[in-house]
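Q: Got a minute? One more chain.
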Amino acid sequence: MNTLRIFILGGYGTFGTRLIRLLIADKGLTLICAGRSLAKANALVAKYQPEAEAILIAAETDRNGDLTQSFTEWKPDLIVDTSGPFQGYGERPYRVVEAAIAAGVTYIDIADGADFVTGISVYDEKAKAAGIGIISGASTFPALSAAIVEDLSKDWQSVNCIENGLAPSPRAGLGKNVIAAIMSYAGKPVSVIHGGNNTTAPALVDSRYFTVAPPGVEPLPPMRFSLVELPDQTLFPNKWTALRELWYGVGTRPQIMLRLLNLSSRIVHMRLLPSLSPFKSLAYAAMKLLPFGAHRGGLIMRVGGESKDGTPITREWHMIAEGDDGPFIPSMAVAALVKKIQRGDKPLPGAYPALGIVSLAEFESQFAGKQIIAGIRDHLSEDAPLYQHILGEAWQRLPQEIQALHTSPSGKHVAGRARVDRGKNPLARLIAGIVGFPKASEDVSVEVTFSVKDGVEHWQRNFDGRPFSSLQKRGEGSFEHLLSESFGPLEFGLALVLQDDKMWLKTIKWRAFGIPMPRFLAPSGDAYEHVIDGRFHFHVEIRHWMTGLIVRYRGWLE
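A: Always. Here it is, folded:
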């Protein structure tokens, strides 16, 4: 069987390895893992060949050597450069491109260096003469970012605002080359559009705040993002000519690390230091020593513009990657392109940045089998149900019985039966009594009456004549994209998470008398809503590590 032969330069590196792992299940591929070290290439082949359907081959190739000879010898159908850093290739940054054109082989790279990606067009005529595609930037930026903007604005008449925040996992293990690239431009002017003006702002100094929150998933905490340099800042104004706001930032964690980078970059901006490049090794060591925080990464893309009828509109695309799955994302555009080439959809001849080469749907198809969740948030009318505002498009995945309970609640009265358990600890009993939680009972009648004022829902619960109530509203500030529920002076920020056919309410933050409190001091316990035999069921458990169980009530309503 004829297979598509792919020559992966830097194949045993961070992104090359992940690209191979994305492709090895395809028996229609031959993957040539190439780099300066044949031993490392052989080690990778030996590690992954037993589980691979694709054919894996190790190759020794020096990007500074005779690449044309290597390409002629290996006869690939596609060359993929995953090595980098593309910002620091020296006097001949496009030597791989030149060799690919000389060999007449389609070329793709995963560069996100602004100058490298935008400069690829100088080879346009040569690539067309050779009848091949030369594509740069088939990575998160600009391939994925452009696909997101295209998808979010597909039914609009114009796009005037694009804001982006990338939050790598604190344990993602950013490579030395990535750190070196960031340190090279920290504190120096980067192109932005602000208020309709094409201007500049200092990299890693200018900052904004975002919350990455895919619908139906526990969000990342609100965090600070600081300006970075990417190809989009040069490419997008030519594609979306009505832009009045264009800004890209990175949210490094732990955030204290970002604050230190902000301070150091400000020193460069003030011209007290020429560059942070001499400190790249120190920065790399610090990142290795400070992997604090949950092993989760994310991305937010906020796009604003005008709908077909001229109405202002804003949409957001949110994505969270759990664990080690985030670093696969920069290689996914190439994996999606490989699938298109196999279907006979070859890249057009010419040399160009990777805008419009894959759709968002084609990119998201690569998420299968990975712990990567993405979704869209539209800015809804104020009349939309409270829970729909928080869940976004995940609201549509709720069973009708749960939607019905949370739709137009003002004046609604529901009733059912419940079982109530109370903790035995004296302190737990005291807390339950102060809050007004119901007494223990094997079977008790329960009624809930709802009222709404100024967007705040009042839930009046009554367990066999014993009432207690809470207030629910959309979270703001540090509670953004959370459900805020208050019991007297205590306010809890709850994430609405859809999992295992249930809507879970997970405590993420809390305040006492308006003062933020440490999360480890917060009450815990499972709380969720679900449907059994067409009937709405609830389960609420409140416990604390100091007291054990405080109260648990579960039952049904209709």
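A: The CA atoms of residues 236 and 278 lie 32 Å apart.
Q: Perfect, thanks.
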